[in-house]
Specification:
Pfam families: DUF4880, FecR. This is FecR-like transcriptional regulator. One of its GO terms (molecular function) is sigma factor antagonist activity. The protein is α+β, with helices and mostly antiparallel strands and 337 residues long. Among the domains are: 130 residues, Jelly Rolls (Sandwich), CATH 2.60.120; 74 residues, Phage tail protein beta-alpha-beta fold. The strands form 3 sheets. Strands 1, 2, 3, 4, 5, 6, 7, 8, 9, 10, 11, 12, 13 and 14 form a 14-stranded mixed sheet that branches. α1 crosses α3. The chain is elongated, with a radius of gyration of 25 Å.
């Protein structure tokens, strides 16, 4: 796209070479993908006169015209929806959408799943919600950044021209951010804010309102609130905030262990037992209670298999001066020896 339509004088005929190039490019795509691409160009209002001429030739074909109209109907239906499309990514399917054109929500969802990101209208491409239930998943965002969602996690995405914002509503996510100093990348977790330019890090949001940020690579800026002073984290550092009233508490972690849940493990190095139990909780089918604040402060080092986290709990007496007592089949109490 060489210029905006308002700055380009209108011509009735486009250069033959440009039209040929456009035709060659589109001929490699399905009609539905071509329609999505043309609709995206039209919606951006940045088509050159040559592109408008190429579009006239393309849409003159009856099949192309029907495909374009189908995309337009989907788009107008999606615009009427009250919230961004929710994409349950563990159920992504490459299903055809056109036979379901009168089912608005289904069409909007399938349009997101079926079409390549570069062919989607900007609002669909840059505004959506990602969710997982029982299994972690990886997702590539519109700018090429990657987000790895742990189980039972929800992240909302909102991209605009000058910034990239995501909201971690629940769970845990690992981010691999494409560098762009002119378009900073923000992650909101409750009132707390994480800002990056290009890095790899994870953000965890626990049910007790604790937020944890750990950096694998690069630099991350964290704030307790939007107006709070910034704290900077580097590779191998972690910040934990217990509530929106508290500043982040900084500690060291093994940079290589950040996001290790993606590979089925949780790594702990000299971490307080209370923090370890908090991180293990999503993987446990029992309730774990700690008898006192002193016990919660005992430092723990080790590796837990997230598919058998209960075994890590029962093995704690071998690692620490504690006893693990099952008060019933669903509840465990950890006490001093």
């Amino acid at each position: 796209m060489t210029s905006k339509s308002g700055n380009q004088p209108h011509t009735d005929e486009a250069p033959a070479t440009l039209l040929a190039d456009t035709h060659d490019q589109l001929s490699q795509q399905s009609i539905d993908e071509q329609a999505a691409l043309w609709f995206t160009r039209q919606h951006s209002q940045q088509m050159s006169s040559q592109q408008r001429q190429a579009f006239k030739q393309w849409v003159a074909d009856k099949d192309n015209q029907q495909a374009y109209q189908a995309i337009a109907e989907i788009w107008h239906s999606c615009e009427a929806l009250p919230r961004p499309t929710i994409v349950p990514i563990e159920k992504r399917k490459s299903s055809l959408w056109r036979p379901f054109i009168h089912t608005t929500a289904a069409l909007c969802l399938v349009a997101v799943l079926y079409l390549p990101y570069s062919h989607l209208p900007a609002l669909l491409m840059d505004n959506m919600t990602l969710a997982t239930s029982n299994f972690p998943k990886e997702m590539t965002l519109a700018d090429g950044s990657k987000v790895f969602l742990n189980r039972n996690t929800q992240v909302r995405v909102s991209y605009v021209q000058t910034q990239r914002r995501l909201w971690l509503d629940k769970g845990e996510a690992y981010f691999k951010v494409k560098p762009n100093p002119y378009r900073p990348f923000y992650v909101h977790a409750d009132e707390r804010l994480i800002k990056v330019v290009g890095t790899e890090f994870e953000v965890s949001r626990y049910q007790n309102n604790q937020i944890s940020v750990a950096v694998h690579e690069g630099i991350v800026e964290v704030k307790a609130t939007e107006k709070s002073p910034a704290t900077y984290l580097y590779a191998g550092s972690q910040a934990i905030s217990q509530s929106t009233d508290n500043q982040f508490v900084i500690s060291s972690v093994n940079a290589d262990s950040v996001g290790s849940w993606r590979f089925g493990q949780l790594h702990f190095f000299e971490q307080p037992l209370g923090d370890v139990i908090t991180k293990l909780k999503p993987y446990l089918d029992i309730n774990v209670h700690i008898s006192s604040a002193d016990v919660a402060k005992i430092k723990v080092s080790g590796v837990a298999n997230i598919n058998d986290a209960k075994s890590f709990i029962t093995a704690l007496p071998l690692l620490l001066p504690v006893n693990v007592i099952f008060t019933d089949k669903n509840n465990v109490l950890i006490i001093n020896k």
